[in-house]
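User: My instructor asked us to take a sequence, write out its structure as tokens, and then describe one feature of it. I'm not sure where to start. Here is the sequence I was given:
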Amino acid sequence: MTQFKAKFPADFYWGGATAANQIEGAFDEDGKGLSAADFVEYIPKEQRTKDNSMEITAEQIRKTLSGESTARHPKREGNDFYHRYQEDIALLAEMGFTAFRISIHWSRIFPNGYDETPNEAGLQFYDNVFDELAKHNIEPVVTLSHYETPYGLTEKYNGWVGREVIDHFVRYAETVFTRYKDKVKYWISFNEINVITISPYTGGGILSDQEDNPMQAKYQGLHHQFVASALATKKLHEIIPEGEMGCMLAKMTHYPHTPNPEDVLKAQQDNQNNLFFTDVHVRGEYPDYLNCFFKEHEIEIVKETGDEEIIKQYPVDYISISYYMSLLSSASPEGEQTEGNLTKSLKNPYLEASDWGWQIDPVGLRVSLNEMYDRYQKPIFIVENGLGAYDKVEEDGSIHDDYRIEYLRKHIEQMREAIGDGVELMGYLAWGPIDLVSMSTSEMSKRYGFVYVDKDDEGNGTLQRSRKDSFAWYKKVIESNGEDLSS
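Assistant: Let's start with the prediction itself. The structure tokens for your sequence are:
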């Protein structure tokens, strides 16, 4: 048999990915309104329990707005990208980035989400960012909604539970498409859209404690997001004919815990429950297995006339995913548990884990890419992958993050193998190229970046940027188009 080594396509995108609420800061500057992320509290590690989650209650919001709460809200601070974007983009350009994923803070454009007219200062900020990226020949990849539902929509409609939010989202999308039609080609409607079913507040600005039937509410909110995504795709193709809309999934590949057929069946069901989001976005309809799930759980999605036709008529152009780990499925889940990306799993004895307990599975990325490409035959864009780890600054200021290089190398090798398998892969955007506030824990100590930011979990530090060893390594990877992965 002939040995064949796949190569990355010449037009493959290399870069990194961020979210506005984790980097920008300036939460109350230049007319920006509050968003869901602005109410997420930092809980010190010693005070955390297994019950801590990303969900926020109406009472927490009341205490924050009234000043009764003394909690810190690190996503209001970010890493100060709002004031340092030129410096940060110059660092990305030095690494050779050809693409950079950001999100637009919806409440920076429409402070309450439902405003009649957009905030010009917010629009101008992103003009400046896109112009800076263009100066360095970096392609922007822009997420419309990345856990940043304007608080005004939570207050008025309980977030995406309210059907009215569809129209507000489409107006927002139309506004930014029109403004940036000559600057942005690649768009993503909702970051990790499946997270609305795991944390309705995070994914949809929904306060579950205000709902009589929280399960019904989150799936109703999800339906509204599906309709909104399809309508935004329609607008995109009208305003930017060459524009491309992607959906995004937090890819959670499940393996059966044992060869027991019951575990195999459970893994199949868990994988279906992860993939149904892309089924709707790509195939344009709810799969039969999901309709069975709704019946079993007595969920009745309220659909207006035309919803199904809209979803069917305007599918996405490409699929984007985040990938951090694989999971184990068991019909009788007994044994040691480990943490994950907003979820828990039985520990896989064949895998190592990160400092936060996330199981490291590079081969699982190849498995995931093959599974999704076989299912959809659509281009796939990896828009998040990386290692959250503790970094040590040496006395001379250097940061030797060989563990991060090793993690990324192994995942990039498996991407190349997937391309050899026939997967159409658009690019690779490593998560958090400049250290940012963690989505799940609001820590700074959970670092992903090639660039270190001098700021600690309590908000202390100079915010000075410095290069880690992985900075030079990733620069070499990009220069060689993924051929040179050596340290």
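For the description part of your assignment, you could build on this observation: Residues 245 and 253 are 24 Å apart (CA to CA). Try explaining in your own words what that tells you about the chain.
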